[in-house]
Structures are given as C-alpha cells and as structure tokens.
Amino acid sequence: MRVLIFPAMAAIGLSAAQADMPVLTVLAPDYFGSSWGPGPAIKDGFEARCGCTLDYRTGDVLPRLTLEGARLQADAVIGLNTDMTLRARETGLFAPHGQDLGALELPIDWQDEVFLPFNWGYTAWVYDTTRLDEAPRNFEELRARDDITLIWQDPRSSGSGLALMLWVDQIYGEAAEELWADLSARTVTVTAGWSESYGLFTDGEADMVLSYTTSPAYHIVAEEDETKAAAIFDEGHYFMAEVAGVLAGAAEPGLAQEFMAYILSQEFQEMIAYANWSYPSALPREDWPEAMRDLPLPETALFLDEKEAEARRGAALEHWRAGMTR
Amino acid sequence: MHHARSLARAPRVPEPARVARWAALAAGGVVALWLLVLNFGALGAVAWRAAGLSALGPADWAALRFTVVQALWSAGLSLLLAIPVARALARRRFPGRNVLITLLGAPFILPTLVAVLGLLAVFGRSGLVNQGLEALGFARFNIYGLHGVVLAHVFYNLPLATRILLQGWGAIPSERFRLAASLGFGPGAQFRQLEWPMLRELAPGAFLVIFLICLTSFSVALTLGGGPRATTVELAIYQAFRFDHDMGRAAALALMQFGLCALAAMFAWRLTLPSSLGGGLDRPVERFDRGGWGGRALDGSVIVLAALFLLTPLAMIAARGLPHVAGLPVEVWQAAGRSLIVALGATALSMAFALALAHAILALRGAGAAALEGLGLAALAASPLVIGTGLFVLMLPVVNPRDWALVVTMLVNAGMALPFALRLILPGLREVVATQGRLAASLGLHGRARLMIVTLPRLRRPLGFAAGLTAALSMGDLGVIMLFAEREGATLPMQLYRLMTAYRQDDAAGAALVLLGTSLALFWGFDRWGRGRAAA
User: Fold this and answer.
1) Considering only alpha carbons, which residue of chain B is nearest residue A69?
2) pLDDT number for residue A107
C-alpha cells in the first residue's frame, strides 16, 4: 500500500539498497527509529563501516516478538528494556551475542550471553530548581514533605513506572504499602506513559516527575536550560538498561554479530549518550560527554535481575495497589 | 420503514424494488461481515492465541465498577448539559454561529493526549481556573478524581451530544413550529408537544453512544482520575497484555466490555420512542419559538458558558503550539499528509459502510435489523489493543501485516467511526423512507435513481456531519497503527508521541496544533458541505 501511495519514497529506498549490498534488518521500538531517536545516527555509523544497509523495522518490540515468533524477518533486535528481557528470552528466538562483556562499564555485574546492554540509566524524581529549593534526599524525606507534589507513571502500563515500583519494593519490602499510602497523598496523578507525565511536569502541574537521572542533560544540551535536576537518593536508584540481541533465525548472522561489536565500539558509545539521553554502557564515566559526566550520579545501584523481578512483581503490585487506593 | 416492509412483502412487488432490497441486503451483509471480523474475529484470535479465556480477579471487578460508574455520570451529564446548549443554538441566529458550532465540535476530535494537556492547562493545579481562584484569595480546586474524569468526558462528549440534539431540533419541520405558534403554544406546551418527542427519540441513542465511548476510556480516565482508583476495564486489558502477559485475561476482559455494550444497547432501545409526526416540505427553518428577552438572555448565557468551557482549552493548545509551528521538522508535515490520506480513505469507506448498513437495517425486520444495528455499534465497545493484536494475529499467516498498515488503519478507523455515522444516518434514512417512501415507490424510483434523487439529498446534513466526524477522528487516531506501522509509515499522532518521547515538548506542542487544525479543517469542510446553503 505504501508503494501505491508513496511510489517516490519507495523508489528512493530501492536505489539506496543496491542489489548486491547485504541488508541488516533490526527490530526496534517506534521511538528508536524515528528521526528524533538514536536510530538514524546508529544507522549512519554502522553503514559507514559494514558495507551494508541497515534497515529498522519498528513497532512494539515485545508483542512483535511474541506474535510473529519464528516468522519475524529480522536479524537483530535493539531497544528492549531490562524489564522485558525475560519474556523476550522465553520466546527462544535469540542466539548468543558473542561479545566479550569485559568492556562493559555498568554499576552492576552483567553476565548475559544473549542480551547486550548499549545504554543504561537510573529512574529518579526530576524537579525544577526554580520551583523547589531543596530536594528530598531519600524516600523518607520525600514522604515527610507535604509541600511537594508528584506526577509519575503507572507500573502496569509503563516501564519507568514498573521500575519505581521495584525500586520502592527493594527498599521497603513488606512495608511498601505504607509508603505508597503516604506518596499517594503527594501524588497529583499517575499517567499511563512517561510522555504524559513529563509533559504535565513541564507545564507546571507538579513539582517532581518520575523520570531519569539523565533527563536534565537534555535540557542543558538541547535547550541550554540548567533549571532541571534529578533528586539523588542516598538509598540508591533503580537501574535500567536497554539491550540488543541477535536473532537465531537471522538471514545475516555475520552482520548481526558485527552490529553487536559496533555497539561496544568507541564511536557508538560516545554517540549514544546524547542520541538517547542515557549513560553509555561501555565507557568509563570520565569519557562521557561533558553534560552527562557533570551530572550528579547516584552511588548505589538497586537492581533485580529478570527472574527476581518476575518473582517480586505480583506482590509489589499488590502493595502498590493497596497503598494507593487506601 | 413499515411502508418499505409492506411493499417488499406485497404480492405484486415491482421487480426493481426487489432487486434494490436484495442489493441493500448484500451490501449490508458485506459490511456486517467486516464488523464481525473487526470486533469478534480479532477478539477470537486473541483468545485463540491465549488458548482460552482466563479468570478475572477482584481488581478486574473493581475496574468494571469504576468504569460503569464514571461512564454513567459522564454520559448523563453530557446529555443533560447538551439539551440547553443545543436548544439555545437551535433557537438563535447570530453572526459567527456556524463557525462556533464547528469549533464547539472540536474537543470530540482531539487526540486524548492533546485534550488532556489542554484541559489541564485550564483546570489543572496550575491552570487558569486555579490561578484565578488564587488571585481572588480562594482555595485551589483539585481536578483529579472521579469528578475530573467526568469533567474530561463531558468536555469530550458534550460537543457530540450537542450536535446530535441540534440535528434533532433542525429535523423538526418548520411547519410544526409555525403551527405551534399559530395555536398559541407557550414554551412549556411547545416543549411537550414538539421537543420532548424528539428528545425521546434521540436522547437514548446519544446516551448510549457516549456511555460506550466513556466505557473504553483509559488514558484520560487514569490521568484525570488521579491514579489507580481510576482504573478502567481498558486499562485492565492493557495491564493483562503488558504487565501480566496474559492474553486470555485480556480476551476475557474484552468480552466483558462487549457484554456491557450489549446490556447498555438493550436499555437504550427500550427507552427509545420513535417519533410519529408527519413529514414536512423541507421549507427553510424559520423559528417561531424564540421567546422574549428572558429566553434570549438565558440562551445567550448558555451559549457563552458552553463556548468558554469547550473553547478555552483549545485556545490554550493553540497558544502553546503556535510559536513552534513554523519551525516544525519536515517529518511532521509528511506525517500530516499521510494522516490526511488515511482520514479521507477511512471517511469514504465509513460513509459507504454506514449507507449500506442503514439500508440493510431498513430492509430487514425486527430481530435481524436490531442485530445489525447492534453490530454497527459494537465497535464502540471494542478495545483498540485487542483489535490491533487480533488483526495482526489473523493477518500473519496470510500476508505481512506491515505492508498493509495504512489500509488496515483505514478499514479499522472506518469501522470504529461507523457507530457515529450509523447513529447519525439511520434516523435520517428512516425519516426519508417514512415521509418520501410511498411517493418514491409510486413514481417507480428504485435503486440507484432513488438513492441519488430522493435519499442522498435528504441525508446530506447527517452525511456531511458523519463524514466530518469520521475524518477528524481518523486523523487523530493512534489506535491500532502502533503495532503495525513501520518507521516511514508514521501518522501525525505517532509523530506527536515520538516528539514527546524525545523530550521535544515545543515541537510536540506545534504538532498538536497542526493536528488540531487539520482535524478541524476536515470536520468543518465536510460539515459545511452537509449543511449546504441551509442555515442549519
């Protein structure tokens, strides 16, 4: 149909992919492949060295993996979150990425032969320094501050919301319900996705929004706005990574492996921080781009691996629901 | 309808009439088949993938309770408020009236994300209302909660209810108002004799449509509801898919949503009384019911209040986006073009669907007609997530769903807009058959000739309105395309989300304004065509 409607666009696409040039097809989330996501820069970088064409196939990655299964016509996947790796792994569609993990610079130990992290971050409460003088330094201070209003994401529909739920679960365990009840009183609203939350926060609807410790970097670099900051909590922050993987049914397994190697390359790692507004996975902090390096970094990483997270999710959601609807 | 039926059953039915009846039934059958696939085939496919339905938990039942309560409030209040607004608009003529009527329809066609941001810019914690209250020394008002959900849904649906009722007022032949005036009817008598029967005919259907729209609300309900207390069935479906990875429960919840839809539809039909007054001569509507100064002041304030309520959030969206429109990336304009094509395709399909289905409904009797009409409404209760996933599963073995993303989007949007189109066109068609059917039959007008000469000209107003609604709704729809679309196939709402995901709030505000402007222009264009030269 697109061919019918946009013959010109299709023609351009065909001439670029010359007949004998191999094509690496990468499944990625919609935002990732868009003009404002990291996709285009990665495509340019990889194509310059692979003698191939990199095509993104975008959409909801996990549903596409589970629904299409072995019929999926792709060589690699990029942009899965750590909260999706278990389901993705269970599809049995992945092959080992074949990379030496010694190059990784993560705050947690990562020994995964299937999923290769390309960037990472911490969820955090982000605030506007012109509206909030002193940010809380942990959840106990946050629950005591009745002058602060919060907007965040629903753990049932959002990855960052889920991270917050597991973050609280890590610190409070069975006492989480009490904390949720207190936070509920500070909460303006809970939205389905991150975009709604962040939009409402920038419109001034709440003092703090659940986002990432790296969010202020965007405002500093792209808008020269230094008024956004992330509250660093002394009890630690929940770690999230985005990963890539090779599909076992890849038509171009060699290229897919090469792509994995490219992810760990200096070029990719230096570019990803600003392209995707998160920390590079294989670059020591002193080599991060300036705005990212200068941001305060949490000292402790809290993280549940996919099996532990799966085991805690049900109970944590019950605490959340009970506390929030009390 | 009775005339058509008795004609069809009469022993000496002219051949062309029989052919026309069968043609209507065949076309209606094709549409019905697509609706079955869309609504139940997709659901079935999801259930099949899940190998059955799963049991529902207590949280699901709580979600059901909240969903029904908020939908009842939202639909009731939208309808109740629409009555004075529609009445005032029907009775008054003033400069800019047509533009105002178009603009008042705008909230209904906004994408949810844009509507929520606009609404909160007015009613939110730091919105205009609270700034005003604070400046005057009053306490702040908190929008979040059940009342916020209802407010948002009224903001969304008051325009729809108003337009449906306005059509009703416009459809009362002017001769009747003249007769009422010459008989010396006071406002009360006139309401009882002319307006109440019209409301009895239209209000239950309007209530049903709005109730069903609110039934499937998800993001608006959650955001304005202030958190998990405002969990709707649609969010529970989302959770089943994304959090619990339990497609069986998603299918069970979707089935429950259809059950609710059927129940609500049954209630609405029991409440609907067909109006039984005769036809008119299509004379230009000249009002004899304007009342004195008191009535004028009342109508004036009703219109001003409605305009303030509905238009201030739109103005906030426009003010926020306007400075950023000129600098929008080219991809946004490309996506706007793509969305335009999808919207126009969906509109053409939806109008054809609605006409075919409406003719088939009138050609059938009792239960069959009711079933078809119910099927036409069913898409309102369908979960976009279930439809998208289900169609994907259905298409996979046959074709590559990605290659058909835009076509599927057109077909789905046409099906999703069909409830509105049918709701608008069916009463008009009934009226045409009732008032012009005998004359047309006696003149030997059947089939295409009758459609072109008798039916379509009289349906022009509801057709134009329905087409405008479909085009605008399709323009702003995010629904199923997210699962199907490829990078290059992005629609304007998709680009809007991408911009927001990439922190580009300013560009997103500009894109939101483009979306609002395009949707409104489409709506206005079709609606304007429908109203033709007549002063609506």
Assistant:
1) B396
2) 96
